[in-house]
């Protein structure tokens, strides 16, 4: 019986591919948050354009996300130097693409969303106050519903938790190139990142009523209740 030799993965050309995939995996989650924010930004700010409320727009957002991740990770394929070494600039690049760039984009877009909603609410509110009660059909509806506001806040909170858990991991890795890091600190940052991922999963399960009811019914069926 043959056993797989892990060292085969570290052949020169496979090393390039592994590091390329490593960077894609690192930026996948934060860029999914960016994709969601871009989608909601266009739906809210350009709410009169029906295209942004179609499934085609959702598909474009998802496809653009993956294309962007493949393109952003290209420097790992065309780099020079030792094939199997994860150099300092590569760690800094992954850290920037995973934490700081998504944070900057999310912050700017979310600020613009809430600023737009706030200004729109101020314009609509006086008009609503002067309309008689018997002309309710002419009352302008809010641009963003309470459900959308709650969803935006939820996604911002989840993104904040994710960044809190993973920024220390990447920073410690970069600092490790210059000074020796205590193994306890390395283990602590790794545990923190996993706890943040776990808390995100639990939070999504608690807030997703449909999923919670579906899983609850399946569990009841399994145990015969």
TrEMBL record:
InterPro entries: GPCR_Rhodpsn, GPCR_Rhodpsn_7TM
Taxonomic path: Eukaryota, Metazoa, Spiralia, Gnathifera, Rotifera
Biological source species: Rotaria sordida
Signal peptide: none
TM ranges: 20-45, 57-78, 90-115, 156-178, 184-206
Classification via Pfam families: 7tm_1 (PF00001)
Protein name: G-protein coupled receptors family 1 profile domain-containing protein
Residue span(s) of domain G-protein coupled receptors family 1 profile: 1-207
Single GO MF descriptor: G protein-coupled receptor activity
Membrane topology type: Multi-pass membrane protein
Alphabetical UniProt keywords: Cell membrane, G-protein coupled receptor, Membrane, Receptor, Transducer, Transmembrane, Transmembrane helix
């Amino acid at each position: 019986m043959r056993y797989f030799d892990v060292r085969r993965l570290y052949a020169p050309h496979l090393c390039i591919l592994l590091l390329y995939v490593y960077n894609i995996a690192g930026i996948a989650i934060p860029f999914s948050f960016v994709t969601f924010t871009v989608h909601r930004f266009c739906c809210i700010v350009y709410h009169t354009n029906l295209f942004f409320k179609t499934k085609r727009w959702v598909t474009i957002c998802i496809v653009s996300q993956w294309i962007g991740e493949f393109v952003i990770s290209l420097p790992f394929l065309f780099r020079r130097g030792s094939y199997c070494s994860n150099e300092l600039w590569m760690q800094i690049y992954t850290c920037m693409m995973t934490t700081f760039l998504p944070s900057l984009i999310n912050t700017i877009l979310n600020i613009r969303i809430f600023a737009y909603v706030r200004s729109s609410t101020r314009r609509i509110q006086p008009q609503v106050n002067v309309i008689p009660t018997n002309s309710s059909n002419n009352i302008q509806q809010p641009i963003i519903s309470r459900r959308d506001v709650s969803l935006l806040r939820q996604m911002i909170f989840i993104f904040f938790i994710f960044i809190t858990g993973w920024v220390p991991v990447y920073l410690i890795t970069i600092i490790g190139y210059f000074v020796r890091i205590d193994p306890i600190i390395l283990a602590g940052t790794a545990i923190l990142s996993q706890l943040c991922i776990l808390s995100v999963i639990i939070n999504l399960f608690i807030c997703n009523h449909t999923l919670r009811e579906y899983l609850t019914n399946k569990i009841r069926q399994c145990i015969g209740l």
